[in-house]
Amino acid sequence: MGFLSLLIVASMPVLQLLFVGSLGAFLASGYSNTFTPSARRDMNKIVFVLFTPALMFASLAKAVTLEELISWWFMPFNIGITFFIGATLGWIVVKILRPPSHLEGLIVANCSAGNLGNLMLIIVPALCNDEGSPFSSQGTCRVHGTSYVSLSMALGGIFIWTHSYSLMKRDCITYEKLQKERLPELIISENLPVDNLEDQSENCVKSGEDSNCGEDQLLPLTKSTDESTEQIIMEPLLSSGKLNKSLPLCNKIMETIHNLAKELMEPPTIAAILGFIVGALPWVKSLIVGGSAPFRVILDSLELLGGGTLPCSTIILGGNLIGGLKKSKVKPSIIIAIALVRYVALPVSGIAVVKGATALGFLPQDPLFSFVLLTQFSLPSAVSIGIMAQLFGVGQEESSVIFLWIYLIAALALTIWSTVFMYILSQ
User: Fold this and answer.
1) Does position 335 have pLDDT exceeding 80, yes or no?
2) What is the tens place of the pLDDT at every residue in 352-367?
3) CA–CA separation, 40 vs 50, rounded Å?
4) Does the entry feature the keyword Repeat, yes or no (predicted)?
């Protein structure tokens, strides 16, 4: 497969996302003004509670079987490693560059959570169809590739909607704390009524869809922050919960478990778990999957709903980009650091992880499976991060600016790393 052909394959899904995002930006601009902030918030809630769960359930229920789950056991570990390395490096970026404290979780999330489904749904089948690809000689390449990517999407969704979701929620909590700390100063300097200010900040979120601590509702931050607020940042893979050093270790563990359980009850995570169950139980799967399934209309309907996830979330990001280009607080150094983590450090780490797993006999004898594992280390940031930023109302504009630059770089980065990975697997 030539470099030009690979460039086209790797660039098309990224260009599609950028094109759809530009439509969202136009609709939100002054030229159209039809995609208002309230419309974006309402659409985002629908994506969160309906489209994303439908996509995850349909993908898993249709593509995964119990035998495949057993033979592909290393994939969840591989995704976990990508999140661990990315989150650790993101935490280091935060400590070095010291961004505003209410954007720390956003930066860590962009470093750790990759687009584990949508891009590979286009790239992997295209590689199977290309005659020059090392995988095209396999008759079952497209079938297996779709199954690998569907499992990657579902597993990635579980990590994203637990770990990354908790990071974004914590940004919201941090922002609320900063607002409360500034209440006396604002009351004195601007003669603002106390009751109105306290009403704005009294509740952050217990779930993303009830968010009311966003930057549109709360007062703007000043550039300077107290040193104590910098300590809000978490250890990289702590799922959720407020850190309190005075609590006994047992209480901390129980609090962490309790908060993790709450994250697992979010709609996308519940849908992924149900999809695993349906895919792993043949008699249940036969009821909704297949041309002769008596309840196949259920899966068809969910696939139809799931198809709205990517375009809607990308349009929302594009709409947020208009405001982000004007008032985003993201420095170029932060964008460069995220790009270096995602496109240099993670792919190099991925090569070491996959080669080590192959040497230990952990992987099935299928080079396409190894290619999917390697690609998981080289993807741009997950689009779902933008959904979460919109849900919690913190960092929407910053998330859109990061999205724009990371995906512009992705076309070249994916091309280079896909070439390197196929060369390694062909040896």
Assistant:
1) yes
2) 999 999 999 888 888 8
3) 15
4) no
| DSSP string covering 114-147 | B--SHHHHHHHHHHHH-TTSTTTT-TTHHHHHHH
Pick left, alpha or beta for residue 194 (phi over 0 → left; psi -120 to 50 → alpha; otherwise beta). Answer: alpha
Burial 221-258 (b: 16+ CB within 10 A, else e): beeebeeebbebbbebbbbbbeeeeeeeeeebeebeee
- Tell me the pLDDT tens digit for each residue of 273-286: 888 788 888 888 88
Residues 6+ apart with CB under 8 A from 350: 82, 373, 374, 376, 377, 378
The rounded distance, in Å, linking the Cα atoms of 238 and 245 is 14
Assigned token pair, 108: 């860590």
- Check: CB of residue 15 under 8 Å from CB of residue 305: no
The structure's pTM equals 0.70
Length of the chain measured in residues: 427
pLDDT tens-digit readout, 207-248: 444 444 544 444 444 334 444 434 433 343 443 444 444 456
Q: Coil, strand, or helix at residue 164?
A: helix
Distance CA 230, CA 226 (A): 7
Helix (H) or strand (E) holding 197: helix 194-201
How far apart are alpha carbons 214 and 76 in whole angstroms? 33
Dig out the tokens for 9 from the structure. Answer: 């394959």
CA atoms within 13 A on the CB side of 361: 0
Q: Which has more confidence, 25 or 142?
A: 25
Contact (Cβ atoms closer than 8 angstroms) between residue 116 and residue 155? yes
CA 152 to each of CA 18, 59, 181: distance values in angstroms, whole numbers, following the listed order? 23, 10, 42
Looking at the 3D structure of the chain, how many domains does it have?
1
Q: Which of 366, 423, 382 is nearest to 119 (CA)?
A: 382
Highest mean pLDDT pick, 35-49, 202-216, 245-259: 35-49
CATH code for the domain of 398: 1.20.1530.20
